[in-house]
Amino acid sequence: MATLVGGLGTSHVPAIGAAIDQGTTQDAYWKPLFDGVEPAREWIAALKPDVVIVVYNDHASRFGLDLVPTFALGVGAQFAPHDEGYGPRPVPVCRGNPDFGWHLVESLVLKDEFDITIVNEMTVDHGCTVPLSLAFGQPQEWPCEVIPLCVNLIQYPPPTGNRCYQLGKAIRRAIDSYDKDLRIVIFGTGGLSHQLQGERAGLINTAYDTMWLDRFVADPAPLAQIGHTELLRELGSEGLEVIMWLIMRGAMDAHVKQVHRFYHVPASNTAYGLLVLENA
Ligand code: DHB
Ligand code: FE
User: Fold this and answer.
1) What's the pTM?
2) Per the residue annotation, which of 82, 194, 255, 260 is the catalytic one?
């Protein structure tokens, strides 16, 4: 039986990846952030998951405006880091798990009627690689297999928060019905408040981020009912990425234990948030 052993929520700011790649994590600017992430690294090193499902948005890298899947799941054997304009990040190629990937797709499409886009070949951008670097540092190989799950946050309309929350619950049913002994962790990535463009560029809303983190742990269902308009107003245009955390939360039990929480401003132009959860 496969088991979901943990959930991790984290921002996926590309500058964090650059700090790791360029060896500047101990500089005055970055040290507080990496110190705050350290307990999550120790947690996952001890947990030793076999597979991590990384929920993230592709930032017009593998996909583009010519093709915008709402939910796309990687069933391939490997996923290389995407060249986002500065060469691919010097991180390992993700090893996939096609058998488990196809099980997820079959369960989601046939049992829960989520019409997931099935992706055999894909590269993964900072949305996926930065959380992996934060969790695992700079190994020669990622210490587990990776299933990338892309959510559209690029072209309006993205899915609702509730659709994401329900998808998380469906992913949990798929995990629980997989007959191989796999220990699985799910990452929800993106956010917290940030807006990278337009008149409100630089927006950070610590009060709303704090509310989100508080309620996310204790009582997430109402968060899934918040509409795009409120999220865009309060968290900024790119802050809408927080809906991907709801996929992770939906997959976890209703009652969870908060293992670690960290919040730090600024990380580049973004409010950095981190939550580590275990089923209670
Ligand atoms: C930036 C990009 C992101 O995708 C994100 O989630 C946060 C910040 C950036 O370009 O700074
Ligand atoms: Fe992003």
Assistant:
1) 0.98
2) 194
